[in-house]
């Protein structure tokens, strides 16, 4: 049986843009015209928000994979130059985020416990600052889910 533990951490739920479909401009909202690439709903009015696709890491216990830790998040970057830099460095950021989340899942998380969202946020913020080489980008944690195997 699959058990989901959902923890809402902020009022802003970060998700992949394709998950939120809105009617295309001039449409009636009932599937007339346009594909998913044309239909998107912003989850915030902030121009500085950069959504991240979900990040995952394996959860181990007793030398076996017991589940998957998944987080959804985004970056709030008011400075347009730093935002452009973050978007250029997104592959490096994602790689570093997955590595940091995997370290957390392997060293700090005990299978069956509630994930420490404060620790996850801190680790991800440190990772963001390290990859970008400066402060100015806030890591916003939207949701933490444990998918049991």
TrEMBL record:
Residues 1-21 form the signal peptide. Keywords: Signal. This is Flagellar protein FliL.
């Amino acid at each position: 049986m699959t058990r989901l533990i959902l923890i809402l951490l902020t009022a802003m739920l970060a998700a992949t843009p394709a998950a939120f479909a809105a009617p295309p401009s001039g449409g009636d909202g009932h599937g007339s015209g346009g594909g998913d690439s044309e239909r998107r709903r912003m989850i915030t009015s902030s121009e500085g928000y950069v959504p991240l696709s979900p990040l995952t890491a394996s959860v181990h216990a007793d030398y076996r994979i017991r589940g998957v830790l998944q987080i959804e998040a985004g970056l709030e970057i008011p400075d347009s130059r730093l935002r452009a830099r973050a978007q250029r460095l997104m592959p490096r950021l994602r790689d570093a985020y997955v590595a940091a989340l995997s370290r957390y899942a392997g060293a700090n998380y005990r299978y069956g416990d509630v994930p420490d969202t404060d620790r996850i946020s801190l680790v991800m913020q440190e990772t963001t600052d390290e990859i970008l080489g400066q402060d100015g980008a806030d890591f916003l944690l939207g949701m933490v889910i444990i998918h049991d195997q």
